[in-house]
Amino acid sequence: MGPRAPGTSNACGAASAIRAVVDGGPLATITPDPPSQQRGITVSSIYVRADGNQLRKLAQRLEDGQLEIPIAASYRLADAAQALDRAIGGHAGGAIVVTP
C-alpha cells in the first residue's frame, strides 16, 4: 500500500478504510459499524439526514461553478475492483468515479 492519507469512507467499510488513514489522522464514517480508535486515529461517526432542499442548493452551486469536486480517476463498472483499490489505497487525491 502507498503512503497513508487522512480518510473519509462511505463505500468500503470503515474497518477497512482505517488502514488507509495516517497515524494520528481523522476518519469520518457514515457506516453503522465504526472501528475502534487505533494508532491515534480519531474516529467520527457522521449521521446523514435526507434534506432535499439542501441537496438542491448544493446541486445549483455545483452547476453555477461555485462548488468543485476534484476527480482523481474514473473507472468503468467492470473495473470497480481497481477503483476500490485506489480509494482505500490512501492516495487518491480526489473523488473516484465509477461509470456504467
The major pleated sheet works out as: 3 strands, parallel
Structural class, please? alpha/beta
For the secondary structure, the number of strands is 5
What is the rounded distance between the termini?
Answer: 27 Å
Strand percentage lies at 15-25%
Low-confidence regions: 1-11
* Domains (count): 1
Q: Helix count, per DSSP?
A: 3
Give me the side-by-side strand order of the main sheet. Answer: 1-2-3
Order of helices and strands: EHEEHEHE
Can you give the mean pLDDT? 79
- What overall geometry do the principal axes of the alpha carbons give? globular
Alpha carbon gyration radius = 15 Å
* Helix fraction bin: 25-40%
Structure description:
The protein is built from three helices and five strands; from the N terminus they run βαββαβαβ. The two termini are 27 Å apart. Residues 1-11 have low confidence and may be disordered. The protein is an alpha/beta fold and 100 residues long. It has one domain (7-99). The protein has a three-stranded parallel beta sheet with strand order 1-2-3, with no helix packed on it. A two-stranded parallel sheet has the order 4-5. The protein has helices at 14-17, 52-63, 80-88; strands spanning 7-9, 26-29, 42-45, 71-76, 95-99.
